[in-house]
Amino acid sequence: MVFWEGYLSDETMGTFGPIVLYWIYGGIYQLLPPLERFRLHTRQEEAQKNLVSLPCVVKGVLLQQFFQATVAQLLFLITSKTNLGGPKTQPTIFIQLIQFLVAMFIMDTWQYFVHRYMHENKFLYRHIHSKHHSLIVPYAIGALYNHPLEGLLLDTVGGVLSFLVSGMTARTAVFFFCFAVIKTVDDHCGLWLPGNIFHLFFENNTAYHDIHHQLQGFKYNYSQPFFPIWDHILGTHMPYSLVKREEGGFEARPTRGWKEE
Question: pTM for the complete prediction?
Answer without folding.
Answer: 0.92
